[in-house]
Amino acid sequence: MKNRLKIMASFVLVTVLLFCVCAFVGCNQDVSPEDAKIHAIYDLYAENCAAEGETPLTYDAWLASIKGAKGDAGPQGPKGDAGKDGNGWLYGDTEPASSLGKVGDLYLNYSTWDVYTKEAAGWTLRGNIKGEGCSTGPTFAAGTETYYAPITAASGTELLGQIHDLITTTHTYYASYSDCRDYAPTTDYAEGGKSIVEFYTHETIVEYTKTGSDAGRWNREHVWPKSLSNNLWKGSNTVGGGADMHHIRPSEVKMNGVRGDDLYGEVTGGSAIYSKTVAGADSKLGGYHAGGVFEPNDNVKGDVARILFYVYTHYNTYANVHGTTNGNTNGQTENYFGTLNFTHIVSASSEAAAIELLLRWNALDPVDEIETKRNEEVFKIQHNRNPFIDHPELASAIWAS
Q: Does 341 lie in the same domain as 242?
């Protein structure tokens, strides 16, 4: 308790001193009030590290860790916008009360170093300022362990049902098909500028606005094609599973066209499929196809499997997957949910054989940084996660038996 009081007193003292200095001496005009608060929180972090005999990160390294990839997550809010509209920091030694604060505010629990943001639905845990230790710095993984707190089952159909209930009830924003295009520069951002990462080849497509029908551009790829969705996502104004950003990925136009509505599977002696340059020449290998079956590259097979696990678990109506609810989709649940089988999308002799192939792909190609970053970005938009990216072992726990 003494340490907590000391930390709280230090926070207040640092904040007061900052404002006093600004009032009587004048502050650098480049340092905003929000920046001053962040400096005060860094001081608390550094003081706590010193008290534990550990070496804190430098301020710049600490701030970079808090902001996450390109500053999109952290105490300045999504893309650093919070603070410009008067959003502020609150603090206490417990979890924030639901009645506290306004949408856009941030909250520091100085007994655990957890950071929360206030959204329309309430406070959401965003990460931890201290992280695993002073030398590693803050962790902002969108509070994944808190997200999975409702999961109590260990395996089988009970676990499947609980995951379905979780990802549907937390799915509070259903994206439009246009969203999948407009958010691609954020969800599928390629390092180095205004570019996106192509799904099957992992190559960079420069100028992310270049959607269309020409070679070297990109389309929105339904990893689980509309024609194989048992009529769940259809028409030009695709919604529900057909516009879910955990599902839709950017694919180079010609690559996408050749893959078409092929089932996923393993082929022997198939034709190589290449993405194309703007000039129409072969660019990078994306996989092989033969007889209506498409086999992606080994380093994408896990990505495919984890997307298909997500789509199957989410968009099967709850009774099919031992759940209890389809969540809140503003009255559209009957249009969004139905019956999906893995044999709708995988070339296999039976449902068990289809599952066995996807489990092999899941193990062959572990979760990579592209998937992890993407899961975080989509979570910020839709408010649900792909559990098979956060915990790929869930697939075996559900289906291996």
A: yes
In a domain, 338, yes or no: yes
pTM of the predicted model, to two decimals? 0.67
| Per-residue pLDDT tens digits for 123-137 | 877 777 765 555 554
Tokens at 234, concatenated: 């259809």
Paired strand residues for 123? 118
What pLDDT digit, counting tens, does each position of 157-192 carry? 999 999 999 999 999 889 988 899 888 888 998 876
Q: List the one residue out of 309, 363, 296 whose CA is nearest residue 340.
A: 309
What is the token pair recorded at 323? 């759940």
Residue 114: phi and psi, rounded to 5, are: -75, 145
Residues 127 and 209 in one domain: no
Task: Give CA–CA dist 60/46, Å, rounded.
Answer: 13
Which are the contacts of 318, defined by CB distance < 8 A and separation ≥ 6? 161, 164, 165, 168, 324, 325, 326, 337
d(CA 88, CA 91): 10
| Residue 387 structure tokens | 């559990």
The residue among 77, 109, 140 that closes a domain is 140
Res 227: pLDDT: 92
Residue 17 sits in which domain range?
A: 2-140
Q: Are 357 and 308 in contact (CB under 8 A)?
A: no
| In-domain check, residue 57 | yes
